[in-house]
Specification:
The complex is a heterodimer of chains A (355) and B (599).
Chain A: E1 3-8, E2 17-19, E3 23-27, E4 35-41, H1 44-47, E5 60-68, E6 74-78, E7 83-87, E8 94-98, E9 108-113, E10 125-128, E11 135-139, E12 146-149, E13 154-158, E14 167-174, E15 177-182, E16 187-191, E17 199-202, E18 213-216, E19 231-235, E20 239-243, E21 253-256, E22 270-273, E23 280-284, E24 290-294, E25 309-311, E26 325-330, E27 337-342, E28 346-351
Antiparallel strand pairs in A: 1-28, 2-3, 3-4, 4-5, 6-7, 7-8, 8-9, 10-11, 11-12, 12-13, 14-15, 15-16, 16-17, 18-19, 19-20, 20-21, 22-23, 23-24, 24-25, 26-27, 27-28
Chain B: E1 2-5, E2 19-23, E3 26-30, H1 56-59, E4 62-64, H2 70-73, H3 76-84, E5 89-92, H4 93-113, H5 122-130, E6 132-135, E7 140-142, E8 147-153, E9 161-167, E10 170-174, E11 198-202, E12 208-209, H6 213-229, E13 233-237, H7 243-258, E14 264-266, H8 270-280, H9 287-292, E15 304-306, E16 318-322, H10 330-339, E17 346-349, H11 358-363, E18 368-370, E19 376-378, E20 382-385, H12 394-404, E21 408-412, H13 420-430, E22 433-435, E23 442-445, E24 454-455, H14 457-465, E25 481-485, E26 488-492, H15 494-501, E27 509-517, H16 522-536, E28 542-544, E29 550-552, E30 555-561, E31 568-576, H17 580-591
Parallel strand pairs in B: 3-4, 4-5, 5-6, 10-11, 11-21, 13-16, 13-17, 14-15, 14-16, 17-20, 21-22, 24-26
Antiparallel strand pairs in B: 1-2, 1-23, 2-3, 7-8, 8-9, 9-10, 18-19, 25-26, 27-31, 28-29, 29-30, 30-31
Helix pairs in contact in B: 3-5, 4-5
Classes of the chains: A mainly beta (355), B alpha/beta (599).
Chain lengths: 355, 599
Amino acid sequence: YRDLHTFELQAPTRVIEWARGSRICVAGYGQSGRNEILQLITPPALQAKETQGLCPERDFKVECGGFSKRAVYSLKYVPDTSLLVTSGPPDSSLQVWQVSTEDSDVIKSVSTIATENATGQLWAKIATISARAPWVLHGSTLDSVQITEVELRKNVYTAGSQDSEELAGLAFLNSSTAVLCCTRGQLCVADVRQPRGALQAMPAPAAPCGDRWCLGTTCAAQGSGLGAQPVARLSSGGLLTLTDLRKASEPLASAMARVPFPGSGTEFLCVSWAPALQGCLAVSGFDGTVHVYDTQSWDSSGREAEPLFVHKGHALGGSGDPALVTVHTWHPQKPRTVLSAASDNSLHVWDWVQP
Amino acid sequence: FLAFSLCPGAGQDVGRSCILVSIAGKNVMLDCGMHMGYNDDRRFPDFSYITQNGRLTDFLDCVIISHFHLDHCGALPYFSEMVGYDGPIYMTHPTKAICPILLEDYRKITVDKKGETNFFTSQMIKDCMKKVVAVHLHQTVQVDEELEIKAYYAGHVLGAAMFQIKVGCESVVYTGDYNMTPDRHLGAAWIDKCRPDLLISESTYATTIRDSKRCRERDFLKKVHETVERGGKVLIPVFALGRAQELCILLETFWERMNLKAPIYFSTGLTEKANHYYKLFITWTNQKIRKTFVQRNMFEFKHIKAFDRAFADNPGPMVVFATPGMLHAGQSLQIFRKWAGNEKNMVIMPGYCVQGTVGHKILSGQRKLEMEGRQILEVKMQVEYMSFSAHADAKGIMQLIRQAEPRNVLLVHGEAKKMEFLKQKIEQEFHVSCYMPANGETTTIFTNPSIPVDISLGLLKREAAIGPVPDAKKPKLMHGTLLMKDNSFRLVSPEQALKELGLAEHQLRFTCRVHIQDPRKEHETVLRVYNHLKGVLKDYSVQHLPDGSITVESILIQATAHSEDQGTKVLLVSWTYQDEELGSYLTSLLKKGLPQSTS
């Protein structure tokens, strides 16, 4: 490590979302009915150009907070507004919140975007993009994918699909295209300029039937095509598949992540591309570790890949049940800085050294 | 009724603490701190707020000091000797021992080094301390007949305490500065479920999520080690007491583990006494230290020696702890000047530095400092900052509230705008009211005092026998007469009250006339009424007396003919005040008329 900071939150979080000005948002996912959404200012130590060992402030500051009765499973800021959107069981509706740090430090609940309930307790996956209007892409199943304009609560797009496949994740690729990933691994690309556009589907990679998948993408720059950055999919068995959406029939590359107990964790699977390191991605959710891989050396054989770096901090926690990493995210500017949170309330900020 | 006033000090001003509480007619001052940032009168609280006229000694029942940090006791000699207060001042034994040392040190620097005149003297400090009454932990101290106080362990620094102030059944707990997690040499704060009406808690770190102590310590040791390895010198300016001891233990343990040879020095005078006090008050330290004290005194350091001024010129690596902490004067500043020019050296600032001090300047990045005599000092040594101060964060505050179970919470030392979230959090979690007053603001909190009343045994027995069996969990309604005489309240039976007061009992009797259309004879009407009532009032005792009247329980009903109209009978219904309810009911029942067929 070049640097490592460990923190303890009052409750575990499964979301870490970045906001303007070096802020992150975390939220509780407990079933007790009293969860907190916290917007934290990152310590100046993280914001500095060079990493210093001892810095004026090494602590996170709670800038504002809100209370949510629901468990928060997904949280996204709506760019260019002071709103954020959350979702969580028992249904696929979205809760809209107002973050205003002017006169008060309370994040207030503003409205709810209701949706037709899918069967079962499926919660909505959310994606947002900086666009002309405050759009939120959300849905819990393929046929319930829609875009809502948040301030007016108006529906702008609905996926033209009859398929009730459960969604694992969705993301905007650019302001006109979105990619959807089902829990069984299929990918779909949607042109969101057409209000009821059909989806272009791609098959799931070959993998054991019971595996569940999740999605990792990078939001490409305005105007760039689909192929700017491949889309990564991670299975609960540890299989990582990279797909170029222009040639989606065949995976670009794939590899097996080295996981101790494949198939154990499906709740918190997380894969994400490093914004400032070409071809690097991080994987977590199987145990108390976060793995960083360099995908540039991968081929399509699917054999086991050696991680560049493994963060073991969460696994080395105190006594009790071993912690499970719930989420991780890359620092938008500092190339090797990653934030990760685990089920034991820990929040780590680490800066790894390229071996 | 508990009025609480935030007198010129704390409340959104991290600088000095001074709180005035009015509880059940008693006035108590909590802490008497000074602001380290100001060099003029603003550093002391404005005591004219307290009472417009009249002497402070008459107005205040006592003053309580929570711990020896200057922002909690720095203005005490000024307050007691220059403004004028002769009443009792309470603090714990370690605080009483250490306060005068810090006050004298501060006085020396302010007067001797800075040449100020309007400041308290050494004699004033001594006179002030004569008014101090030292207290033990968990000892209930009777200030006067009604006011009592009790100290609880607060962690934070040696001798720091949280105080409970109680008058009758109203109480306030003031936390001072406290810490809910134990560290290397002190334990964590603790309080019992005393359920005060108000808990006043500091909230300096309420909005902070601190990184783990392990990380901070690791980084600190890494920096010290690196500097020493390359032959540099490390200067750590500290306040004599407090975190210095924590860091000493940390370094000592590290030196032992890594088998390091570079010397560590602890500057003399003030700090020697400090270590002496820690040994003296060993019971105030944490469990681990007390347990190992027999085998190895934690404060008997193997690798840390007393410093001599000459050592600063010695070649080679070393680590020196020197006072004062903000590099504003004294030995630490002297050493700093000697070492500043060498980039191999390092200075680690251990905490908050007040504006204007050299410490603050170098932390802000200044590398060329103007010293006295217009000399420019170029700072080439590495400047680092770390904060090991022990305060409670949001989680700690919640823990303390959970322990004490107050009815109201008041937060001081924070930034009001940014505490709305914490306020709501506390209100929602504990269902109590949370206040965050500003400097100078008065907060009034209403309490529901319970007033104890003695009940006479005879009355208790009598009332307990009526109605359902007494149940410990259910309140029971009893009737009696409340006698308030002098300062005592007694509940007695009405008869006894009358006897004691020499009063005669008056009986109130109500009589009501109900007209009934009935041409028959009176005694037949009576029979009709009797049968009717007998049928309706099955649970009551209805009797037909030989003299022609009817009784329902103790209510009397008689029938007479109307003077002018033979067809109308007049029923006289008569009852005492105690039977009001039944009487009214009977009357309205009879007014409805009698059923036609009666037998």
